[in-house]
Amino acid sequence: MSAIGSPHDGFVQDQVMRESRIDPAGLELVTEVTTRIRLAMATVIEGKPDVIDTAITVLLAEGHLLIEDVPGVGKTMLAKALAKSIDCSVRRVQFTPDLLPSDITGVSVFNQDLRDFEFRPGAIFANVVVGDEINRASPKTQSALLECMEEGQVTVDGETYELRKPFIVMATQNPIEMEGTYPLPEAQRDRFMARISMGYPSTAAEVAMLESHGGAFPLLEMAPVTNGHTIAKLIEIVRTLHSSPAIKQYVVDLANATRATPALRLGASPRASLHLLRASRAYAALAGRDHVLPDDVQALVEPVLAHRMITTGETQVARRTSADVLHEIVRRVPVPSSAR
């Protein structure tokens, strides 16, 4: 991801600024709270400011985050750090092959005293749900999350139950070629707003990690810096952030380009376009702006779209990834300018 706040040359901001509906005080609140979250998470996650920013962006955009990388690079630590920075309900689910869908959604149990069935909520009934190694669960169990993640509700035995707001699922997974894993189906991947990889830390960051984590566990000392009510308020503020018709057209043009390129077997869905726009609004708010720039969209194209793409056999033989294809598309699709 590129640096937050770098304006795109040639993009006219005056009209955007005039049409913005966001309250300046609200934007200040977003900046203040997200700065506190960043600083708190940075005490646990060393040398990964871009990863932290993406996680916060997904939270404010009402999305869900998929953290994919090899074991031992801090995937679960990132999810737990974001969860602990917020004073709200948090549940962790350890995905295993024997995990049942009812363990996640809940189950109706007959109550002998009441002579009737009563619903016992599952792990999904929390503001922040940390799913550890989601691709170790069976596809049937993975599918239990589909309704929860898209509609914010759970249906069990014909009864529908609303989930708490705010609501975010942060799931980790190892690469699909690792032993004992099940690839996430396309429908499940499309529910995640963004996918990020932790990557290995720099030498300096790894030395700092050994210093801070070697004798203590910083996550235990981490205290919440905000609460669920405030996060819900920030989400409402981000919703009002202005995105011009040119920006919306740019998002659609990028999505259409993924569907038309012969390098991809599966392009971006309309849900992906919506997620890209929502994430761009949150990304702009993190930068302290009340409007979306093309830079915001470009910075999020890879984390928001790459995990939804399926490359063709020819693309794979050429050793090109979906991220490579997306970079080519970004270079080719015209950027909004004063002429549009």
What does this structure look like?
It is a single chain. By secondary structure, this protein is α/β, with parallel strands linked by helices. It contains 16 helices and 13 strands. It has helices spanning 14-19, 24-42, 49-60, 75-84, 101-105, 139-142, 145-151, 186-191, 203-214, 218-221, 228-239, 245-260, 270-286, 294-305, 313-317, 322-332; strands spanning 65-68, 86-87, 90-94, 106-111, 116-121, 128-132, 153-156, 159-162, 168-173, 194-196, 226-227, 264-266, 310-311. A five-stranded parallel β-sheet has the order 3-6-9-1-10. A two-stranded parallel ribbon has the order 2-11. Strands 4-5 form a two-stranded antiparallel sheet. The two termini are 26 Å apart. Residues 2-7 and 9-20 have low confidence and may be disordered.
How is the CATH topology named? Rossmann fold
Main beta sheet, described?
5 strands, parallel
CATH class designation: Alpha Beta
Estimate what percentage of residues fall within beta strands.
15-25%
Number of helices, counting only DSSP H or I runs of 4 residues or more: 16
Strand order of the largest sheet: 3-6-9-1-10
What's the Cα radius of gyration?
21 Å
Number of strands: 13
* Class per helix and strand makeup: alpha/beta
Q: How far is the N terminus from the C terminus?
A: 26 Å
Helix content estimate: 40-55%
Along the chain, the helix and strand elements come as: HHHEHEEHEEEHHEEEHEHHEHHEHHEHH
